Amino acid sequence: MHIRPLSGDQVKQFVHNWYRIVEKGLAKDPEQAESIARQKAESLIQRLQEPEFRARRVFELTRNPLLLTNICLVHRHRGELPRKRAWLYQECIDVLLEHWREGKHLRVGVSAEDGRRVLQPAALWLHREEGRTRAKAAELAPHIEPALQAVNWSGGSTGNFLRTIRDESGLLTGWDQEHYGFMHLGFQEYLAAREIRRRAQAGDHQILRELASHFGESWWQEVGLLLVGLDDPSLFTPYMREVVCQPAFAAFPNLVEMVLDDAAETSPQPFVELLETACGRDRQLSRRFMGLVQRPFRGSWVSGKNQELWQRQLVALQVLERLDADAVERLVPGLAMHPSPSIRNWLAARRERVRQRSGQTLQDVLFAEPGGYELVRIPAGVFMMGSSQREEGRRDSEGPQHEVLVPDFYMGRYPVTNEQYAQFLKENSKAAAPKYWADRSLNQPRQPVVGVSWEDARDYAAWAGLRLPSEAEWEYACRARTITPYYTGDTETDLDRAAWYIENSGNGLHPVGEKEPNGFGLYDMHGNVWEWTEDDWHRNYEGAPTDGRAWVDSPQRGSGRVIRGGGWRGVARFCRSAVRGNGVPGVRGSRVGFRLSRSVALGP
Q1: Could you report the per-residue pLDDT of 95-105, keeping only the tens digit for each?
Q2: Which residue, among 449, 453, 451, 456, has the nearest Cα to 430 in the 3D structure?
């Protein structure tokens, strides 16, 4: 069974109930227990609402009932909570194994330090077979016994050790008379990561390469993230040296973002090295590339192997831009004649962004403060809004087709991302987190934020000093002077160049900016997410404004709002420039996000 994440109200109720039960059970004065429980529960709830616990990854832990129980234990023991996920797992284990029993004046059979050290190799052994979360005591014994000897445990056999952990802490669960497993997969993943770290520090040069070979596999994802989250010292650099040599490094840019997000420390070094040299089997290729940059490239050595390397180098450039823009600048001369068109195009686009940020063409691009949201100036123009009756897939709500004059305005280059929305939450403690903030498939930094209502989008816009676009502005900006169903052309093959939709999305949300932009330099106008606009929903365009402004009912607004663009789970015809959807303002769906706009002359 899969347990749905607790809602915010359920978390509050859980914490209050937990503290009430615990404090009444331990208190010498039952009359005071209620007051103490309420104070401690409110303290924890307030802590969980602070910015670092509203961040995407830590937020997930607070919504899991088993882990929330452990969070309560840690909070009661320490009076506070650590800020990093890896530290939180360690604190949970320490409390379960040792501090909770000490607090109740019970004998501690296994210290926290010894327990972690002994269970680490068992956790890694379990994790090396995908899906394995339990095993017989006899199967675990060969992996536990050497560690028991190393810590000089005096409690007897391996069986005694397993029973002690099971009975005293619950960290290990007895599934039956013979099988043992961790109470939650997260503890197995954390201890496996610690064991990999221990072996790497002891000189096992293959262990990080083995972990890197699993990059992109869901079973190993959390192990890698927890490994880079451990510090003193951090293994970010040696681990990422191995990761950048894997084809999966380019295939899973979302996961690369997560690694950067979770790392205790980061370094540009692995990415610089990939761009300056190449990995293992690519070294000869790299020498040829370094020779080519000294003379004009003549297009003589394009192969599948080269293409795979260039894809990894492109991702390395994108990561390096985030970590150390100066390092990118130092590499530019050597990369200017790179054989990959994608890398040369990326460098050209970067030069343009740098030029725009310097203020040389401030009228063409704006970066809103707060938040740094990027907007592109859209020139004024006249267009035919809606679709003709001949357009395949047309719906009645797209007509009658009519001429609209749109004044120039600014439009967001991308939909608002989770990364940008997290900044809004950090600065607005009373704002509700998106509905899917705890869902790993929907909460990655560069993905469009979803699970936000029309009202949420308006609140973000007000904070950023911007506004939602009108429906006419949205369609005009999407078309970018084209009259075809998609700004890339007429067919689904054309759409594939511009959009993530049901046929190519892999049934998942994608980071912004991965597909082809339109003529105005806007990305993701087709597919990926539906986008809120300012307009009230009307069943067709009869009586619609022709001056580009939002069509808003007065004095009382309608019950629906227009959404545009199609989404990652939609078919191609729902991604056309003219398609309109009816969204309920208060609903927070998994396929609806937003982008923002601004008037040129009048500001928001």
Answers
A1: 888 887 887 78
A2: 456
